[in-house]
Write a structure and sequence with these properties.
Residues 22-100 form the Phage head morphogenesis domain. With 339 residues, the chain is of the alpha+beta class. 48% of the residues lie in helices and 14% in strands. The chain has a six-stranded mixed beta sheet, with helices on both faces. Strands 2-1-3 form a three-stranded antiparallel beta sheet, with helices on one face.
Length: 339
């Protein structure tokens, strides 16, 4: 409906312009074709976004008299978020006949379309691609017996040794058991992948408040978080809550993990379950205002980058986390445990 209204509005404006100005029929047709091409590109962009396609390819028209500008653009790829009609998307000029196409492995894209047409699935392209990649990876591991750095040892996770790591996270046994049972599901779902799930659990009773898997569904690796609606719900609770998520590469708590612990006023702790069996527990002992924690994190990150100039971004992040944890612990704001 939105595109139809836009199309009608543009055409009406064009017709009005042609009717009341001295414009030849040829010029009027060129103007209309250009406006229609603009609307078609906008429609393509909306379709790409709706289906999780984040890159597109510029396709120059096949006419012999294709202009030099469009010929130079042919085959170039761009991020959808950077699309700008007239700059990197058609129409590039009046009477432009060029178009765009989703940029991805053509065979993979066609398989996704075939699945949609045959009723095999109703997934967005990014969701289908992620699911397909996960299934292939698990199939490869099953056939070869090889595992990667994100592999979860199911035997270890189901052992008493690992279960005992959750015993004293809170004062309530039922809450600790809830955290353990939920983490088993998270680790199983994300075994041999780089995806993360995040949950919030009631601090005083066995109750799963929120579970968010959206980042994984969208194929966003090493990321997770709560939606605005979920965050609002959690902050309006009378009780505090515990937050748990997984780290596929078994890294330290991130800057964002630490920052969110203080930004969420009702969050009591942040628990990071690593795929290698390590458990990081950060308990908030004293709150900090948002500007205080933001300023502290920014300063520590800047100082760390200067001190470890030339190191990889991953190494800098790790050193930054270590410094933040030590500083907050020294300030009496944080209790940090590694198990």
């Amino acid at each position: 409906m939105h595109l139809e209204r836009l199309r009608t509005k543009r055409l009406n404006v064009s017709l009005f312009y042609c009717a009341f100005t001295d414009v030849s029929r040829c010029n009027a047709e060129r103007l209309l074709r250009t406006e229609i091409a603009r609307v078609q590109t906008q429609a393509q962009a909306e379709s790409y976004e709706a289906n999780g396609i984040d890159e597109y390819e510029y396709i120059a028209c096949s006419l012999k008299d294709v202009c030099r500008l469009c010929k130079e653009m042919d085959g170039k790829t761009f991020k959808l978020k950077d699309m700008e009609i007239g700059e990197n998307a058609p129409p590039m000029h009046p009477n432009c006949h060029c178009s765009t196409a989703p940029y991805s492995d053509r065979k993979i894209y066609e398989n996704w379309l075939d699945g949609l047409a045959n009723g095999e699935h109703s997934l967005r392209f990014d969701e289908w691609k992620t699911l397909n990649a996960q299934e292939k990876e698990k199939s490869y591991i099953k056939e070869t017996g090889k595992t990667g750095p994100c592999h979860v040892d199911a035997k270890l996770m189901n052992s008493k040794k690992y279960h005992d790591k959750y015993e004293n996270i809170t004062e309530h046994k039922s809450v600790n058991e809830c955290l353990y049972q939920e983490v088993l599901k998270i680790l199983d779902d994300n075994n041999d992948t780089e995806f993360e799930h995040i949950i919030a659990v009631h601090s005083r009773k066995r109750e799963l408040l929120v579970k968010n898997t959206e980042a994984a569904k969208r194929g966003m690796k090493h990321q997770c978080g709560f939606s605005k609606k979920e965050s609002k719900f959690l902050e309006e609770l009378e009780s505090t809550f515990e937050v748990l998520h997984n780290h596929p590469n078994s890294s330290l708590p991130s800057r964002d993990d630490i920052q969110k612990l203080y930004e969420r006023k009702k969050q009591a702790s942040s628990i990071i379950a690593c795929h290698d069996g390590t458990l990081y527990i950060l308990k908030k002992l004293k709150g900090l205002e948002k500007d205080e924690i933001d300023s502290l994190v920014e300063k520590v990150y800047h100082d760390t980058k200067v001190k470890y100039q030339g190191y990889s971004e991953g190494a800098i992040e790790s050193k930054c986390s270590e410094s933040l944890i030590k500083m907050l612990n020294k300030m009496g704001c944080l209790d940090y445990v590694e198990k």
